[in-house]
Design brief:
By secondary structure, the protein is of the alpha/beta class. The chain has helices at residues 2-11, 16-22, 43-52, 54-65, 149-160, 180-194, 205-217, 221-228, 246-261, 282-288, 301-315, 321-330, 335-351, 358-368, 378-389, 403-419, 424-429, 436-452, 454-471; strands at residues 27-32, 35-39, 70-74, 91-94, 109-111, 170-174, 200-204, 233-237, 265-270, 292-296. The strands form 2 sheets. It has a 5-stranded mixed β-sheet, with helices on one face. It has a 5-stranded parallel β-sheet with strand order 7-8-9-6-10, sandwiched between helices. Helix 18 (436-452) packs across helix 19. It starts with a helix and ends with a helix.
Length: 473
């Protein structure tokens, strides 16, 4: 049968869930010449097919019945008429109007090419939409470092030419607290400034989900989809929460497809890359990969320092450099916590007039990092390393060419630089008055050995772990 052939084609081009929901309930009624009549359950069903699957339906009809093929919908009496006609009146939808009727519109008949979305009327794009953005999230306040350079530069490119770059969608991913929301909203804020007429919208996946639930309850799914389809720049935060929600995925898939086909910009954030998203349809995952996936990594010490220095400049306060270094050493993986520490210090300073010094910093840090009990010192590192290599600590301060002593000294300097807030000059002085260049050379030597000797690399990791455990006993 013609309709069975159509179904086989459709099944290859839509998801299994979509096929089961929207095509299995359809029943072929009649075929006359090049006109196929099918029965759909109700008006909503008809509208959904016309809104989302008109392309594949037109392709199937032309394939089976030729270029002049027609498709007619029939809605049961209880469903009412799709266009307000008599209850059981067929709704004719043609892939190409017949020549004899080109200038004579048939009651209840519509050309597939000219059916209009009733929600999208002339001028609706001029309606002002609140972008739901935090104005404090800008590119200027987003400190660049090796950890985020690709994502930030891609964001700037998107903001300058939304929908006009290869970065569509721009998929930003990374662990909690690394600045995904800040960067995504910075893109939105920059676009709002550059393009007054573009409709920009930021929404969390949690809010998007709640909106869909309400739309389903109010029988307003079509209106919901129509609203999102007029957005020029859609920014969705925490897309991973789409996991396991089949109905939500179906709706988001259609919104995504429409926006992308219209050249609109889509920005998504997630706590993991597209390939690691669970319980999300493959067709969505593949679309997330269409553009650029840019990860945000934990910031290095220099970037963390730059973030704090920018914050102190913004607040107009002066914090000693050793205090900043101490904070950055102890808060390594989460920018949100880093800013939280700074806010706590500012509160202590302004509300109870305390001086921001090392003592206050240690008090505040303990509320964020419960494992800090005492400070790591160069001397403690020297003792632990010397014990591991079975050499006297004093040997680390003297000139000697014995290999085990040289390695112990270099490794001690490497760990001191990595695990303390001491300057290079200060570290060198604790090793018999050596200068900072010796510390730099030693750190490089250790790194080179780690890159070529896996056993030595494991030794370094073991010592780091031992230092941390010893201090927290």
């Amino acid at each position: 049968m013609v309709w069975d052939s159509c179904l086989r084609t459709i099944k290859k081009n839509v998801s299994q869930q979509s096929f089961k929901t929207w095509f299995e309930p359809i029943r072929p009624v009649l075929i006359e010449q090049q006109v196929l009549t099918i029965q759909v359950p109700n008006k909503f069903f008809y509208e959904w097919l016309e809104e989302h699957y008109v392309g594949i339906l037109k392709q199937c009809i032309r394939q089976e019945l030729g270029e002049r093929g027609r498709l007619v919908y029939r809605i049961p009496e209880s469903g009412g008429s799709a266009q307000g006609g008599r209850p059981n009146e067929p709704i004719r939808v043609s892939s190409k109007p017949s020549a004899e009727n080109d200038n004579e519109p048939v009651p209840g008949s519509f050309d597939v090419e000219t059916i209009k979305n009733p929600f999208i009327i002339p001028g609706i794009k001029r309606v002002k939409i609140d972008p739901q953005l935090n104005s404090n999230y800008t590119f200027e306040s987003y400190i660049e470092g090796d950890c985020n350079r690709l994502a930030r530069n891609a964001g700037i490119a998107v903001a300058k030419k939304p929908g006009g770059t290869a970065f569509n969608p721009l998929f930003i991913y990374g662990d909690v607290g690394l600045g995904k929301t800040h960067l995504a909203q910075a893109i939105g804020n920059d676009i709002v400034k550059r393009f007054e007429n573009k409709a920009v919208l930021y929404v969390t996946m949690e809010k998007f989900t709640n909106q869909i639930i309400q739309a389903i309850k109010n029988n307003a799914v079509t209106e919901f989809v129509n609203f999102y389809q007029i957005i020029d720049v859609l920014i969705v935060d925490d897309i991973q929460f789409l996991s396991g929600k089949a109905k939500m995925q179906e709706i988001f898939f259609n919104i995504f497809n429409h926006l992308h086909q219209q050249g609109k910009q889509i920005v998504l954030t997630s706590d993991r890359p597209p390939k690691d998203l669970k319980d999300i349809e493959d067709r969505l995952i593949s679309r997330f990969k269409w553009g650029l996936s840019a990860d945000l990594q934990a910031p290095d010490l220099e970037t963390r320092m730059a973030i704090l220095e920018a914050k102190t400049d913004e607040e107009g306060i002066d914090i000693p450099i050793d205090v900043l270094e101490f904070i950055c050493y102890n808060i390594k993986n989460n920018i949100r916590e880093l800013e939280g520490v700074m806010i706590s210090l500012l509160a202590q300073s302004t509300l109870i007039r305390r001086t921001i010094d090392m003592e206050l910093a240690k008090e505040v840090i303990r509320s964020f990092v419960s494992t800090i009990n005492k400070e790591i010192t160069v001397e403690f590192i020297q003792e632990l390393v010397a014990e591991h290599f079975d050499v006297p600590v004093e040997k680390l301060h003297h000139e000697t060419r014995k290999r085990n002593v040289v390695i112990a000294r270099q490794l001690s300097m490497y760990l001191a630089k990595k695990m303390t807030n001491r300057s290079l000059k200060s570290i060198g002085e604790t090793f018999g008055g050596r200068d900072h260049s010796t510390v730099i050379y030693s750190c490089k030597a250790v790194q080179d050995m780690m890159d070529t000797d896996l056993i030595f690399k494991d030794t370094v990791a073991e010592l780091e772990k031992k230092i941390k455990l010893s201090l927290n006993q």
